[in-house]
């Protein structure tokens, strides 16, 4: 679970969640699940000290539906947002409803929120 001021990074799919998360952990000299982790359908690799959590679009949408304020999350990053999908648009709409608590930011050189 994300702790206070944790970050969520939404990537497009399963491969796009695991590979970058493993690389970020490697750069920190750690294993996935320590400071950097991921969550996707049928697989979770997070720990009590996880601060950055990579998630798929579906997981992010479910997290917002369960806890609209995303308790314990200080930032949500929507990576590659120009690759539009229904789930990504839904996640953005739900985040915008809660923008006073969680500030949405698009991480894409071709798209500004």
Describe the structure concisely for a colleague.
32% of the residues lie in helices and 26% in strands. By secondary structure, it is α/β, with parallel strands linked by helices.
What does this structure look like?
The chain is built from 3 helices and 6 strands, in the order βαβββαβαβ. It has helices at residues 14-27, 57-66, 86-97; strands at 6-10, 36-40, 43-45, 52-55, 73-79, 103-107. It has a 6-stranded mixed sheet with strand order 3-2-4-1-5-6, sandwiched between helices. The longest helix is centred in the N-terminal third of the chain and has 14 residues, at 14-27. The model is unreliable at 1-5 (pLDDT under 50).
Labels describing this entry:
single chain, 113 residues, alpha/beta, six-stranded mixed beta sheet, 3 helices, 32% helix, globular, disordered N terminus
Widest sheet: strand order?
3-2-4-1-5-6
The beta-strand count equals 6
Question: What portion of the residues fall into strands of 2 or more residues?
Answer: 25-35%
Helix run count: 3
Q: Which percent range fits the helix content?
A: 25-40%
In round numbers, the mean pLDDT is 78
Shape: globular
- So what's the oligomer here? single chain
Uncertain runs? 1-5
Q: What distance lies between the first and last C-alpha atoms, to the nearest angstrom?
A: 27 Å
Largest sheet: 6 strands, mixed
Topology:
Elements: E1 6-10, H1 14-27, E2 36-40, E3 43-45, E4 52-55, H2 57-66, E5 73-79, H3 86-97, E6 103-107
Parallel strand pairs: 1-4, 1-5, 2-4, 5-6
Antiparallel strand pairs: 2-3
């Amino acid at each position: 679970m994300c702790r206070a001021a944790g970050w969520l990074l939404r990537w497009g799919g399963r491969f796009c969640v695991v590979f970058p998360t493993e690389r970020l952990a490697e750069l920190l000299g750690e294993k996935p699940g320590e400071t950097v982790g991921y969550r996707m359908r049928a697989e979770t690799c997070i720990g009590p000290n996880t601060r950055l959590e990579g998630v798929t679009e579906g997981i992010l949408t479910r997290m917002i539906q369960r806890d609209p304020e995303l308790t314990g999350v200080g930032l949500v990053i929507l990576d590659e947002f120009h690759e539009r999908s229904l789930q990504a648009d839904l996640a953005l709409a739900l985040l915008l409803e809660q923008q006073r608590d969680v500030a949405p930011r698009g991480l894409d050189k071709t798209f500004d929120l």
